[in-house]
């Protein structure tokens, strides 16, 4: 589904963030990128939806080389969830989730209906939370809204950068479990970044371990990695 071949990224200031990266993600698979801070995980994620252009190598999605594609069009098929979710503070929760479908020309009624359903899907009762504003929700709840918003355009692929990083450990484990269930149910292909090895082993179908210098040290199932 997603294939990175010989991908490298050197920033304009000469920083080598990623080197000679080969990575493949199957449809419906959840692959976790894990490793210490600064080893190129976020850069890799952002190259997949072309928020960052790779310096070398190719990135394919469904067999298409995406480096030649219109990035705006590409991102319609890729949901993106980050730690700083950036909900619009002056818009109600339901409106936050409707934004992207409206942008893509969906009718207001359809977008609203879907947003309400998605809030329920991520565990936020829409009657209770739909008309609230972001600051009235806890960190964990805001993160759920972020996931709902990323799912609103029904993308086959989700990219997640430290999605549970901002919540306390107990809520975090609950969100991990719930997200895994949701991901299986919806059949999404997910690439997720974390610096937390426990989270990686817990969630990943396969785990890509990055090392300092932006190289892939290991790539395999949690069982394979733990056997080493
Ligand atoms: P990680 O997500 O693993 O913490 P990043 O991909 O954010 O790592 O960063 C990899 C390396 O690239 C780091 O050395 C970081 O400082 C550097 N880097 C990230 N973004 C930029 C940028 N816009 N310009 C220059 N260097 C950057
Ligand atoms: P979580 O387990 O998701 O982190 P919290 O323990 O932070 O949730 O919050 C518990 C309850 O308090 C939630 O139902 C949430 O809606 C409510 N709450 C949290 N912050 C606020 C706020 N600023 N205004 C109103 N309600 C809040």
TrEMBL record:
Coiled coil: which residue ranges? none
**Enzyme class, broadest EC rank:** translocase
Taking every annotated instance into account, which residue ranges of this chain make up the domain ABC transporter? 2-228
* UniProt GO MF annotations: ABC-type quaternary ammonium compound transporting activity; ATP binding; ATP hydrolysis activity
This enzyme's EC code(s): 7.6.2.9
Sorted UniProt keywords: ATP-binding, Nucleotide-binding, Transport
Q: Which family does it belong to?
A: Belongs to the ABC transporter superfamily.
Q: What is this protein called?
A: ABC-type quaternary amine transporter
Q: Which organism is it from?
A: Nocardioides anomalus
